[in-house]
Amino acid sequence: MRNFVENMALWADITDPARHFEIDVPVRAVQEPALRSAIFAFSSRHIDRQSKGGTAEALQYHNHCLQLLIPALSGSKEDINDVVLATIAILRQLEEMEPDDNQFHLTGTARILNTISSFGSSGGLGEAAAWLCLREDIYISLISQKPLRTNLDSFHGSDVFSRNDDFAWASRMVFLLAKVLSCAFDPCGHQTSRDPSALQTMAREVEEWNSSKPASFAAVRSVPRGESAHRRFPEIWMLLPVHVVGIQYYHIAKIILAFATCPSPALASQNFKLSRDIEKTVRRHLLMVLGLAKSNPKAENTLFTARHSLVAWGWVIRRKEDQEAAEALLSEMEARTGWDVRQSIRALREQWADSDSDW
């Protein structure tokens, strides 16, 4: 429990000023055995990240948690409360750490949010868990290039759209990225042409966020990437982890929108200049995403976002030195968080082997 509070809760609380997973969840877990078992499963997996010896213990807690959850999930909607949602959201974090992600708990959280729409604007632990679930859905959407499973309507009543603090601004950028993903791809993973004006509207909203964001979102130190092995990514120091998330999600939204300027994959292959211009834009924003993660070690879960972005678009990194730096960042992420990145590195190496690395 102590490991969860001190080292892992911030992953969930990154845009939550009330820090529900650090402060409220442990207290609630004293009286809620399912929530407690979910925390122990996640935390035991994290504690043994070096030796890889916590798998059996994590599985034991995970199975116990599921046994306790079954009655609530098998009953009526009234049986699903904020503790149930937070419990499954934590199980989803555990699920994400495994090399073979079956997305079982992601399906569960999306089903709950789409069935009980009040969570997204309920305040308290329920809304905090809903925002965590949304970010978890965003990660899979980035990798699969498919729309979100979560219905975004449930978040429209959230007070993040009326508050003016930095946490609310970061949450609005999370929501904007979710909207971009929802309209950029069809269920088959192809860029959609259902409503081209929708993406133009989204592009304006993303830039309005960037131009209107508080001055506290400005970097306190910014050094361009260099040719040395120690600075292959830009160095960007932000004030707080919440600022890192807001800017990182902005750059990811710009990547999605850059690809969306190409009406079809065929056009990109036919129009060489447009294809190269898009790739340069994507690479520039991707390097910013990676640089933000590397430059702000306290914002540990931005490493997760960097990993997901590399899985989706790592092929645009052409220089061998940059590829080695990307691998090093993934290895650092595994050492610090316990995420298994071997499969990600293997997939990236296969992509890079098929491309011209002399750019």
UniProtKB/TrEMBL annotation:
Any single GO BP term: positive regulation of transcription by RNA polymerase II
Coiled-coil intervals: none
Any one GO cellular component localisation term in the record: nucleus
Keywords attached to this entry: Nucleus
Major subcellular location class: nucleus
GO molecular function (one): transcription cis-regulatory region binding
Localization per record: Nucleus
Pfam families assigned to the protein according to its UniProt record, in alphabetical order: Fungal_trans_2 (PF11951)
InterPro entries in UniProt: Fun_TF
Name the UniProt record assigns to this protein: Zn(II)2Cys6 transcription factor
